[in-house]
Amino acid sequence: MPYQDKRESIEAAEAAQHPSQCPVCRSSDVTTASKVVSAASYWRCGACGEVWNVGRQKVAGRYSGPGFSR
Question: pLDDT at residue 4 above 70?
């Protein structure tokens, strides 16, 4: 069995995911301009206009909360 990096398997799993709703307004009207949906795809909400990337959003969540200020 060939070696597979865990990061690659996580990215592959995330690539198949289409966000079901906007993280800001919770609207289900989300689209992407990407021809091939992957973990690097950016998504736009048709209702509020918010733009986000699922992978970067998860990383940003680590650095919020008590003890972290902007």
Answer: no
- CA separation for the pair 48, 52 (Å, rounded): 12
pLDDT in tens, 34-62: 999 888 899 999 999 999 998 887 766 55
**What is the domain partition of the chain in residue ranges?**
12-62
| pLDDT score, position 55 | 80
Could you tell me the pTM of the whole model?
A: 0.61
14: three-class secondary structure by DSSP: helix
Residue 60 has which token pair? 């940003």
Radius of gyration for the alpha carbons in the chain, expressed in angstroms and rounded:
14
Smallest Cα–Cα separation from 28: which of 36, 20, 16, 38?
A: 20
Helix intervals (H) in the chain = 6-15, 54-62
Distance of CA 55 to the CA centre of its chain: 4
